[in-house]
Design a protein that fits this description.
45% helix; single chain
């Protein structure tokens, strides 16, 4: 089962996202009430996907995104906000977000986006796992330089 972390300070929205995703029977969702709580959970558990609100107390979703990508670059991060701006969306993608959504998000759109994010992540993981690895003097090399 795919593990997803949903971080939002709005408990009602967290519950809605959790219910929507878990209704597919493909996803197990853990909730976090803000960015710091999300990072605590990321340190102790492994998640394939994180869905973050931008505007949260103690730590914004954009700062949480950066720290998640530093700790586990393989986690796919989707950023949501009620106050969408082009600049924030561009920054989120530059910082490693898979996508940037405006609230409210329909359940079907959310499921579709998470499905695509999981598929993209699986493809990247499979490609990385199949890359040729060469050992030389006890050190790993991936690829070569000619």
């Amino acid at each position: 089962m795919i593990r997803i972390l949903v971080a939002d300070d709005d408990q009602g929205l967290r519950l809605s996202v959790k219910s929507t995703l878990e209704s597919t029977k493909r996803y197990q969702v853990t909730e976090a009430f803000d960015g710091i709580n999300a990072l605590e959970k990321i340190k102790s558990e492994s998640f394939e996907v994180a869905v973050l609100d931008v505007d949260m107390p103690r730590m914004s979703g954009l700062e949480t995104l950066k720290q998640i990508k530093e700790q586990n670059p393989g986690t796919v991060v989707i950023v949501m906000t009620a106050f969408a701006s082009i600049d924030a969306a561009v920054q989120a993608v530059k910082d490693g977000a898979y996508n940037y959504l405006s609230k409210p998000v329909s359940g079907d759109d959310l499921i579709s986006l998470v499905d695509k994010a999981v598929a993209a992540n699986a493809m990247i993981t499979n490609i990385a796992a199949s890359a040729p690895v060469m050992m030389e003097n006890g050190r790993k090399f991936i690829g070569n330089n000619q």
